[in-house]
Design brief:
240 residues, alpha+beta, Trna Endonuclease, Chain: A, domain 1, 5 helices, 15 strands, 22% helix, Restriction endonuclease type IV Mrr domain-containing protein
């Protein structure tokens, strides 16, 4: 995996960014080629063209669209990592105009798994919110749910087999940037993701989560998560 040094222009913090590797349809590991030495750019406005880059598979020569490499700095800035441009495929090459999604995303099951009634945990602190979300993930059927002792720089609050989750206990609605950072972390780890929030979600955050198929839940102080989008409804229905 290729790694480059990155300095956040907002807080001047230094990072070592490692490009994520995704499977090409042919099975070969594929990653966007980073442009070493080029300055990173803070993301203040998103467009479809900026969110995807063309990547050529070294195994089969296929050209496809992959997520633009990004880094979420702990200061809150989201940084776009420059990549080397790829020449257009020749007459004999294959290309695809649609983005390739990693193959780890599971298909929904047709029959719900039987579950006992959920027993919530009353939320009094931010730590309680994370604990309530952990109980809910276990109730949904996720295995090996763990809660880090301290919140890492990635802001991932919970990990389980094939899943990462973020819990926003702030008093303002969860922002678009928070949803996208979770999505990028899930892509890098080749796992699914779930978001829990106490104050709900900004409209653009909900719209982005719907497009990325990220389940969104809101929690009240009783500690009972409620689905707020279709992916969350599907997860509640089918379980893990």
């Amino acid at each position: 995996m290729e790694s480059v040094p990155v300095r956040c222009p907002a807080c001047r913090r230094d990072h070592a960014y490692t490009t994520p590797v995704y499977p090409c349809p042919c099975g070969a590991p594929t990653a966007p080629p980073l442009l070493r030495g080029a300055p990173v750019t803070p993301i203040t406005h998103r467009t479809w063209n900026d969110d995807w880059v063309t990547v050529r598979c070294r195994g089969c020569g296929r050209h496809d669209q992959w997520p633009q490499p990004e880094l979420c700095c702990p200061c809150g800035a989201v940084l776009r990592i420059p990549v080397r441009p790829v020449a257009a495929p020749g007459r004999g090459g294959r290309s695809s105009s649609r983005p390739v999604r990693p193959s780890h995303i599971p298909l929904p099951r047709t029959a719900p798994a039987p579950r006992p009634p959920f027993r919530p945990l009353t939320i009094r602190t931010a730590r309680d919110a994370v604990g309530a979300a952990a109980l809910y993930l276990k109730w949904l059927g996720y295995r090996d749910v763990v809660q880090p002792a301290g919140r890492p720089a990635s802001r991932i609050d919970l990990r389980a087999a094939g899943l990462i989750a973020q819990v926003d206990s702030a008093t303002r609605p969860t922002a678009l940037r928070d949803v996208e950072c979770l999505w990028l972390n899930a892509l890098s780890a080749s796992v699914s993701s779930v978001f829990f929030s106490l104050a709900g979600y900004a409209p653009e955050a909900r719209e982005r989560a719907d497009g990325l198929r990220i389940p969104l839940f809101v929690m009240d102080l009783t500690g009972t998560p409620q689905p707020v989008n279709s992916p969350a409804d599907e997860l509640l229905s089918t379980g893990a």
